[in-house]
Design goal:
Blueprint (H helix, E strand, L loop, with lengths): L1 E3 L5 H9 L5 E4 L3 H13 L5 E4 L3 H7 L5 E7 L17 H9 L1 E11 L2 H16 L5 E6 L8 H8 L5 E7 L1
Parallel strand pairs: 1-2, 1-4, 2-3, 4-5
Antiparallel strand pairs: 5-7, 6-7
Length: 170
């Protein structure tokens, strides 16, 4: 189980408690988030959370044969300005690579309160399926599959609609 962009670890801790016998890997490049996750794991004696302190692309380079059954990507930076869209984490190539590391019957969960980013990711999934580059199915979820995180709370306070996408590898 992995989470890309673990932030301060809200979802990691939820998953660690829900699945105490499973290894949960948090991939987080920012020091503040890493420090919070490490501190909380030590304080609460959480033994099944592992952190990787770089971006996902470096994780895949280092662990080429790593495969996951569940991946969570919640509220990545939407880079809403047109000139910055190329900085978005999830693009067609990224999603294709991510799905290639997903086990059969594995799942990728994505959420965003930026409707343009959400639709873009949904379109990437549609294109992968249509081109038969990945055997997937996907659906829109009405609520979070795990817990409410810091950025989910922020979106709710701003009264933004939060959208969830579940991509299953067939």
């Amino acid at each position: 189980m992995i989470e890309i962009g673990s932030g301060i670890g809200d979802n990691l801790f939820f998953l660690a408690n829900k699945y105490p016998r499973r290894k949960i890997i948090g991939i987080e490049p920012f020091r503040n988030g890493l420090a919070n996750i490490a501190y909380s794991c030590e304080k609460d004696k959480i033994k099944n959370v592992y952190i990787f302190p770089f971006v996902f692309q470096k994780f895949i380079e280092k662990y080429k044969n790593f495969f996951f059954d569940q991946c969570y990507i919640f509220f990545p930076d939407p880079w809403p300005k047109k000139k910055h869209k190329k900085r978005r984490l999830i693009n067609y190539v990224f999603l294709k690579k991510l799905i290639s590391h997903c086990l059969p019957k594995g799942t990728i969960y994505f959420s965003s309160d930026n409707i343009n980013y959400f639709k873009e990711v949904q379109n990437h999934a549609k294109t992968l399926k249509k081109k038969k580059e990945a055997k997937i199915s996907f659906k829109f979820l009405k609520k979070t599959p795990t817990t409410i995180t810091k950025y989910h709370n922020r979106a709710l306070k701003l009264r933004n609609n939060v959208n969830f996408l579940k991509i299953d590898k067939i």
